[in-house]
Write a structure and sequence with these properties.
heterodimer; A: about 240 residues; mainly alpha; 13 helices; globular; B: about 120 residues; 2 domains
């Protein structure tokens, strides 16, 4: 019989344990989210994060050790982003009909995201690096980090802000848009994708496949526009 | 399925190569998305063959954000001093961006006569 502490220290070093914890936490989170369908706050990403953060805290495991196992899941974000081309192509007929609305919505939404984040934080006394880190937070993570670095923000803080923006968008989108009685899935999806990137898009796919496809477009286009607009806005304001 | 994943990886790899090589600010996977989309326009039969793999992957898109999301817990100290302001900025600007996006989309769709979906 092996010493349980030796066994634990072996398992804790291997990717298998934390990969398993990630998938198991997500399955549980997905269940909880489905059984609490009426409650938007029960977002599966949020619940899974809380479960895993709890496990890491209780077992005293550093995030770096966890990520060595979880990186296999993280890695799939790249291929999944490329895969958004397939629903985009399937919805091509509908996309073509709303090219102008999409372009106007993209510009309005992207600029609103940057200006309102800076404006609200500035009004509440946030200055300097922390303030600049907010500017690109609606863009998908790799773009936001690059932009943050370029405009004098703190990339690791931007990473946190990007994830929290995505979760916020996924939580508020459905109740907000239902309350406004907006039934056009193209408009709903597109706006959520541009405001809340991949996490918003993941939520949109769960709600409606058309919304998901348009959300993927909104995310991709806002990644490009934020990379252009955020440095211009910051240069103009500061 | 393996072939479809290989196709996705080839486009991602091409996108990463272009993004790094040309020092573009657009991430590699987004370039890969655009390139695959153009390829699907040229070869529509490929879209049918890739549909199940793509939908399978995208159905669990939420899962893929979990590892990065757990990293948030390591940065919570940063929120100690500017917490309420940052939360207000995030929630406020996310709501405003969604409203601006939806409003601009619907208004322009009405003005250009492309209203309604079937």
């Amino acid at each position: 019989m092996n010493d349980p502490f030796q066994l634990w220290s072996y398992l804790a070093r291997e990717p298998l344990l934390w990969l398993t914890v990630t998938l198991a936490a997500y399955v549980i989170a997905d269940r909880i989210s489905e059984s609490l369908e009426g409650y938007a706050i029960a977002n599966p990403v949020l619940i899974a994060i809380l479960i895993i953060a709890g496990v890491l805290g209780l077992s005293g495991t550093p995030y770096e050790t966890y990520f060595e196992g979880a990186q296999f899941v993280h890695f799939m974000l790249g291929p999944a982003t490329v895969a958004l081309a397939v629903p985009l192509h399937a919805n091509l007929g509908r996309v073509k009909k709303v090219l102008i609305p999409m372009a106007v919505a993209l510009f309005a939404g992207s600029l609103t995201a940057i200006l309102s984040a800076l404006g609200i934080a500035y009004a509440m006394g946030v200055r300097g690096e922390t303030l600049l880190s907010l500017a690109p937070k609606s863009a998908t993570a790799p773009v936001a980090l690059g932009v943050s670095e370029a405009i004098g923000g703190e990339p690791t803080l931007t990473a946190v802000l990007v994830i929290l923006t995505g979760i916020t968008g996924a939580i508020v989108a459905t109740p907000l848009l239902n309350a406004l009685r907006i039934t056009d899935w193209r408009a709903r999806g597109f706006a959520v994708g541009l405001a809340a990137h991949g996490i918003g898009t993941a939520h949109a796919f769960r709600v409606n496949s058309t919304a998901g496809a348009f959300s993927g477009i909104g995310m991709g286009l806002n990644a490009i526009l934020t990379a252009i607009l955020a440095p211009l806005v910051v240069a103009f304001l500061f | 399925m393996i072939r479809n994943i290989a196709i996705l990886l080839v486009f991602q790899l091409g996108g990463e190569t272009l993004a790094r090589g040309a020092a573009l600010s657009v991430p590699g996977p987004v370039i890969g998305l655009g390139a695959l989309f153009l390829t699907l326009l040229a070869v529509p039969a490929l879209a049918d063959r890739m549909r199940d793999t793509a939908n399978g992957l995208l159905a669990h898109l939420s899962l893929l954000f979990v590892p990065a999301g757990v990293g948030v817990s390591t940065h919570l100290a940063t929120f100690a001093d500017a917490g309420p302001a940052l939360v207000a900025a995030l929630v406020g600007s996310t709501v405003l961006a969604i409203l601006a996006g939806v409003g601009a989309f619907l208004l322009t769709a009405r003005l250009t006569g492309s209203r309604g979906d079937e």
